[in-house]
Amino acid sequence: MSERRIDVVGAGELGADDRKMWRDLRTASSAPANPFMDPAFTAAVGLVRPRARVAVLRDGGTPVGYFPHERGFAGRGRAIGLGVSDSQGVVLREGVRLDARALLRACALTSWEFDSLEAGQDTFLPHASEALASPVVDLGDGFGRYPERLRRGSPGFLRQTLAKERKLARQVGEVRFVYDDRDPGALRALKRWKSAQYRRTGRRDRFAQAWITRLVDLLARSDDAECRGMTSVLYADGRPVAAHFGLRSPTVLSWWFPAYDRAYGKYSPGLVLLSRMLESAAADGIELVDLGSGPARYKESFKTRDLRVHAGAVVRPGPGGALHLLGREPVRAARRFVRDRPRLARTAARTLEELGRLRDR
What we know:
CATH class of the largest domain: Alpha Beta
Domain BioF2-like acetyltransferase: 159-300
Order of helices and strands: EHHEEEEHEEHHEHHEEEHEHEHH
Strand content: 25-35%
Helix content: 25-40%
CATH architecture of the largest domain: 3-Layer(aba) Sandwich
Pfam families: Acetyltransf_6 (PF13480)
Protein name: GNAT family N-acetyltransferase
Structural class: alpha+beta
Largest sheet: 13 strands, mixed
Distance between the termini: 68 Å
Shape: elongated
Number of domains: 2
Number of strands: 13
């Protein structure tokens, strides 16, 4: 029997051979080439989160798996980039089986929290506490048939969006879309709009967290074809009115940070941008656009189907595991309670928005 060994290294310490093996294992799997599951994303998180780690699983000296994670106080672990990562888990060679708690023990973790565990992660699925729908747009057959599917699924939605775009051009000025805009000014505008949106809706401003801002800036400058940031911008009369910063691989584009200038809100510039972006993405070889698991009416209109992602935690017995349960599970339970009651969820959203307005006065 070959010897199984687990070595834990810093997220930025993987060499070229390990990065290639990691990508080969992902390619051999049936999972989509989600950029959040690429070693380049883990390495970027490692540059802004010093306690980011990768457990390298070796069988007879040969790497057979990679487990990216972050280690916090008292061994409390979390998925790499938790809070902004839309796909999480362990990368394994087909046929390799792991015990989740044994893996945590080898990594000196007392718990490991996830909120977007991808489907098929048999190691961690038994520890999931809830399943979430993640709407996606399938573009594998190109863009040609998609508008017709959109018309069938959401009658009038596409027509209204196109009408808003024409009205924007008529009342403001020429509408122009840039699929991959390298102008840093556009990304700065997006951050301002998104921060204002977070505050307005009473939510925590992600761009007020230095590590998230640094991570986005790093990925925006990346030229790695397997995982890089991309800013798409909608202009009207030469001014940016909506923008999106996403993460992409050669075949998957993750819808990550969309925002728009509220001065042009009546034209629904965000919807116009997404419609244009889907067409350009299909022409660029993107086969799947992942819209993420957060609830939004426009996602229901644009999607072709849902993927499943999972939230939960693996917890080992002991003081560290108890600390996680005391600190996180009541919050998760409260969120599930609200999410499962649509009327209460709408009331909570309105309350958060009102609090945000009061805070900004």
